[in-house]
Amino acid sequence: MAVTIRDVARESGVHVSTVSRTFSSPHLVSVQTRNRVLAVAEGLGYRPNRAARALTTGRTHNLGLIVADIANPFFPPLIKAAQAQARERDYHVFVADTDENPLLEQELIETLCKQVDGVLLCSPRLSNRVIERLGVQVPFVVVNRRVKGSATVLMDVGQGVRAGIAHLVELGHRRLALLPGPSGSWTSEEMQAAATAAAAEAGADLTVLRPAGPTEQGGLAAAQAVAGAGATGVLCYNDLVALGLIEGLRKQGLCVPEDLSVIGVDDSLPGRLNRPKLTTITMPTAAAGRMAVDLLLAAVSAGESGIPTLARLETTLVVRESTGRAREAARRSL
């Protein structure tokens, strides 16, 4: 016979409602009691009925997680961390990929809103106005975008960009270029603002190039424009763009870092395996995933009385092989 909630209550020496709260609202139960109930439930093989609990609590114990491109190595660590954090809180996560398409992103949000208690939006491509309108239906936490009325987790890419500009200037580079990502991207806007300010303060020239697609193909396609910009140091939107750019520059007859120094953003595995190994700005994606889940569950518990929260995570520059000292010969060759 199936083990019931009453069996767990009897063996634990507590009321049925306490067992129910242990699984639906664990923060309302003392640690000692919660641990005893969970141990008994595990020993008896009890598993709560999610459908019945949803009818009782009005919650699905599901969360939505929407990313711009699941193939981008930036996202998997965030997804895994968010899923693990949610699982510890007895929540499941539905993951959806928008393929950088804002219309598909809106469609996915509208679909998920009916099936989850809250949604994590990671690097969304929708406008803030649309996100604010959709946020009326279900609590949101937004990663790497400021949206009015939503809790936010930001990875301080500006901090890393300033460190990257300082690194290039210290190596003797005075003609710099920024290769941004998609138009309207919060990360691109933060990078441009930080790079412009840091370059001006250091007395270096900065050329902001046309936005590139956030993939290796985007970097590859931008190689000719980068080579023609006359820069000796380039900061890219992400590691994929940087790796594509390095390959494109090679096809242009230019070597990294001998002719140009290249910096990426993310500190993803491909950049660490590339030759040359990529100098990059590390983004705390796993920490962002865990924090976003915590903020979202807090918003779910608080309901309409919740107060939006802003959390900012530090970034750092990791120096590897794709940056080197500027050379007069290299500058003249460009």
From TrEMBL:
<dbReference type="Pfam" id="PF00356">
    <property type="entry name" value="LacI"/>
</dbReference>
<dbReference type="InterPro" id="IPR010982">
    <property type="entry name" value="Lambda_DNA-bd_dom_sf"/>
</dbReference>
<dbReference type="InterPro" id="IPR000843">
    <property type="entry name" value="HTH_LacI"/>
</dbReference>
<dbReference type="Pfam" id="PF13377">
    <property type="entry name" value="Peripla_BP_3"/>
</dbReference>
<keyword id="KW-0804">Transcription</keyword>
<dbReference type="InterPro" id="IPR046335">
    <property type="entry name" value="LacI/GalR-like_sensor"/>
</dbReference>
<keyword id="KW-0238">DNA-binding</keyword>
<dbReference type="GO" id="GO:0000976">
    <property type="term" value="F:transcription cis-regulatory region binding"/>
</dbReference>
<feature type="domain" description="HTH lacI-type">
    <location>
        <begin position="3"/>
        <end position="57"/>
    </location>
</feature>
<dbReference type="GO" id="GO:0003700">
    <property type="term" value="F:DNA-binding transcription factor activity"/>
</dbReference>
<keyword id="KW-0805">Transcription regulation</keyword>
<protein>
    <submittedName>
        <fullName>LacI family transcriptional regulator</fullName>
    </submittedName>
</protein>
<dbReference type="InterPro" id="IPR028082">
    <property type="entry name" value="Peripla_BP_I"/>
</dbReference>
